[in-house]
Amino acid sequence: MFEEPFRWMEAISTRHSYVREKLSKGQPVIGIPYNEGAIILGFSPQPGKIYEIYDRIALGGLGHPADVERLRMTLLDMAHAEGFNRSAEDVTIGRLLQFGLAPALKQNFEEIQRAPYLIQMLLAEINHEDNAEFFRVNYDGYWEKFKQGTVISGDNKVSERIQKKIDNTDFVSLALNKSIQSALRIWEEGRKKPALEKESLKSTDDRDELDDEMEGHPTDLKEAFERWNLEVGILNKNTGRKCLYSTLSVSEISALQSEVIR
Amino acid sequence: MTENFERINSSGDFFELLKRSGHNAQQSLSGIPKNAALEIPQGTTVLAFHYKDGIIVAGDRRATAGNSIMYDRCDKVIPIDDYSLMAIAGVPATAFEMARILSHNFEYYRRSQLRAMSTEGKVRALSKLLKDNVAMALQGVGGVSPLFAIYDTQQNKAFLYFYDMLGAEFQILTHVATGSGSPMIKGVLEHENLWGLSPLAERSEGEATSLSIRLLQTAAQFDSATGQARPEDKLYPIIAKVTKDGYQFIRDDEMETIYKSSMNRS
Fold first, then answer.
1. Do residues B236 and B253 touch, judged by C-beta distance below 8 A?
2. Is B186 among the domain residues?
3. pTM of the model
4. Disulfide engineering: B179 pairs with which of A136, A229, B44, B66, CB 3.0-4.6 Å?
């Protein structure tokens, strides 16, 4: 059946729809700079959204946990083998994606007998000029680079709204705490918008669809902090260590919670 | 750099990753006649002891091959991860490779398993590297006898280990020195610990660094393979500490001051 080009294109198109549908409930992961580096953060019902990959590289993922794990391990293996065989300076997201992950993801997606990866990834890096850079990687291997920060989310509308806010915020001049707080408010605005949209929806079907989309999901920060886990990964270029990655501890998250919800 | 999508589980073992990527860290040489003229850079003094806040690790900077001084700015105290240091005595090529493998091993484990490797696991990892290196050590071209200092953040305690070339590990509760210059200072360390102004474990950072410089100068006085400090060239020993805040090297500008004050009788 697949020797006919149309059938192949149809199968690919169906595959896109299948993956997008599976990812639609993926909660946003936001990557933003701050005055000393980069931050990746996100809420999720289960822990396991933000990870360290290498000395200057962090990962945020959404999608099927098994797929996130498999690609995380792939990145870890590539980064550590390269860092050992050459140098830590040769381990960059650009190289990992362009010559490793992206072609493999694309090939996997287009081999239609194989199960596709249900994943979106956001990678952050402090490059060797000490600037923060962000990369968004799609399930089909397509990737983009951002300097101001970026977001991944299962819902494209949420992504667009959050991306617009990120582009209009001068995160680079903000200190760590302020930057995280701004990102959380942007997360909240991104989640709240559908509630406003709902008012304007005329048909009951449309409202039901939106209800399904938001079912069980916190829509404000207070609820999100109460029900979900916030994970914050930080790459601090001034740490004085070769590994720049750290996470906010439980007590730091609690302090952040009381500041943001005050 | 290749991707491997097929593998779905990981024990966080960097040795296994190296093997998969075709790297054979410890290969013995076979069928090679002994070359009497072969001179491999070695010769050293490195020392470590418990002090008030953790462990001080110090080493001279000289690498020699037979009677020749090959290099005078060799860093023999090497950071492995945020909380551990290795001091090397023996063949630098093997020792540096071991340090690189160890460093990647600890970080790979921590990142993949989402928790730091236990202190015991780290101590044994170095032992495994040395055991795998026995053939090279016996052939006389890869012998390494390292010290390993680590701060355990779970137990809030610093640990110090000495290894022989075959990979046996010995926990050190007071002080240790290794390398060709070590016999000259082991007695001094013991004397200082037993009858000095205070036991080594109670000494301040200033007292510990000062004693380290004096010991290395003493070793260099009697062992040609141990390099002396040369202030006129801004060449000082390497001294580092491992405490609850992780490892930290004494900066060159601080070393200058410490050296000057330590060379006076006090």
1. no
2. yes
3. 0.89
4. B44
- Give dist(CA A232, CA A247) in Å, integer: 6
The two tokens of residue B60 are: 């001279």
The residue among A211 and B236 whose pLDDT is bigger is: B236
pLDDT at B177 over 60: yes
C-alpha distance from A194 to closest chain B C-alpha (Å): 35
Q: How many CB pairs under 8 A join A and B?
A: 63
- Residue B254 in any domain: the answer is yes
Q: Where are the beta strands (DSSP E) in B22-105?
A: 46-51, 54-59, 63-65, 68-71, 77-81, 84-87
Residue B252: give its domain's CATH number: 3.60.20.10
Provide, as residue numbers in chain B, all residues whose Cβ is less than 8 Å from the Cβ of A88.
none
pLDDT above 80 (res A121): yes
**Average pLDDT of chain A?**
90
Residue B8 and residue A115 in contact, taking contact as beta carbons nearer than 8 Å: no
| Side-chain-facing half-sphere of A62: CA atoms under 13 Å | 28
* A119 Cβ under 8 Å from any chain B Cβ: no
Among the residue ranges A3-12, B80-89, B159-168, the one predicted with the least confidence is A3-12
A18 at interface of B, judged by CB pairs closer than 8 A: no
pLDDT, position B6: 60
Q: What is the mean pLDDT of residues B114-122?
A: 95
Judge whether residue B95 has pLDDT over 80.
Answer: yes
By residue count, chain A amounts to 262
**How many C-beta atoms lie closer than 10 Å to residue A9's C-beta?**
10
- Only one residue has tokens 């270029």, namely A237
Which of the residues of B are catalytic?
A: 44
In this predicted structure, what is the pLDDT of residue B16?
86
For an interface test with B, give the residue of A53, A72, A73 to mutate (most B CBs within 10 A): A73
Q: Is residue B139 part of a domain?
A: yes
* Residue A126 within a domain: yes
- Whether the CB of A256 is below 8 Å from some CB of chain B: the reply is no
Whether A251 contacts chain B with CB within 8 A:
no
Does A82 touch chain B if contact means CB atoms closer than 8 Å?
yes
Taking residues B180-193, report their average pLDDT: 95
Q: Give me the domain span that covers residue A54.
A: 26-261
State the residue range of the domain holding B171: 41-262
Residue type, B163: Y
Is residue A204 very low, low, confident or very high in pLDDT (cuts 50, 70, 90)? low
Q: Could you tell me if residue A13 is inside a domain? A: no
Tally of domains within chain A: 1
B7: nearest CA in chain A? A70
**End-to-end CA gap in chain A:** 60
Is B92 a member of any domain? yes
Query: Are B7 and A78 inside 8 Å of each other by CB?
Result: no
Q: Is the pLDDT of residue B2 over 70?
A: no
Confidence of residue A214 (pLDDT cuts 50, 70, 90): low
Q: How many domains does chain B have?
A: 1
For residue A141, being part of any structural domain is answered with yes
